[in-house]
Design brief:
Arc Repressor Mutant, subunit A, alpha+beta, single chain, 2 domains, 239 residues, 7 helices
Length: 239
């Protein structure tokens, strides 16, 4: 378990149980007392108010007013929430759009300034449109959970992305591409990238991409992606 997951588990345990001892928390997360003490210190530095009550019956208590989980969300996690809402809106299936937007606005407001900057840069790459009824979606698969974290680095740092891509016939090829945009055509999601080997743009269905790896070498330049007229930028959806 990583430090981040372990600390989140400690917060959940304190929230559920009210009061917990260091020994209880160590057993709950499968770590040593020393590790839990370090985690408690890290949580306090992150803004969580954790009280210590000495003596028999005492222990650690989490002040519920200090639980600001939004500040601990990564850019990729917030982006996943935003694009999920955008996808539902594009599909015409967002019955509580006002509440969803208000909640997301609160999350964004609570983020540190550097994360807000990265989030907005990430959102600049997101487009939404309508899928043609002629497209066959009968063989649609699940998307690799490693995609979004890899996309975050590739898009924000403009790094080349190594992927394995399975075409409609099942043939798998290795590609090195320059990610330029993400396109949601519900229920399909696409990575729009410049393919240097073919000197052209390519649309890669995300459910056919596997083993994404970011190249830490040279960077690339953003290109203008020629979308069809029905495709809109995500920020235009609420207009």
């Amino acid at each position: 378990m990583t430090a981040r997951l372990r600390q989140d588990a400690i917060v959940r345990s304190l929230r559920r149980n009210g009061t917990s001892t260091i020994a209880d928390l160590a057993a709950a997360v499968g770590a040593s007392r020393r590790t839990v003490l370090r985690d408690i210190g890290a949580l306090r530095e992150a803004g969580f108010v954790i009280h210590s009550e000495p003596g028999r019956g005492g222990g650690l208590q989490l002040d519920p007013q200090s639980v600001q989980t939004t500040a601990r969300l990564s850019v990729a996690e917030v982006f996943a929430l935003l694009i999920s809402v955008a996808s539902m809106r594009a599909a015409g299936n967002l019955p509580f759009a006002g509440l969803a937007d208000a909640g997301l606005a609160k999350i964004e407001k609570a983020l540190p300034r550097d994360k807000i900057r990265d989030l907005r840069r990430f959102l600049d790459c997101l487009y939404v449109g309508q899928l043609s009824p002629l497209v066959d979606i009968s063989n649609m698969g699940e998307m690799d959970p490693a995609l979004l974290p890899a996309f975050e680095t590739a898009f924000l740092q403009r790094r080349h992305l190594h992927i394995l891509y399975r075409d409609a016939n099942g043939a798998v090829t290795s590609r090195i591409v320059e990610p330029q945009a993400m396109l949601i055509l519900p229920p399909l999601w696409y990575l729009v990238a410049w393919d240097p080997a073919r000197q052209d743009f390519r649309h890669f269905r995300m459910d056919r991409i596997s083993r994404p790896t970011v190249d830490e070498g040279a960077t690339f330049q953003r290109r203008h992606v020629p979308f069809e007229a029905h495709v809109r930028h995500v920020r235009d959806l609420s207009r």
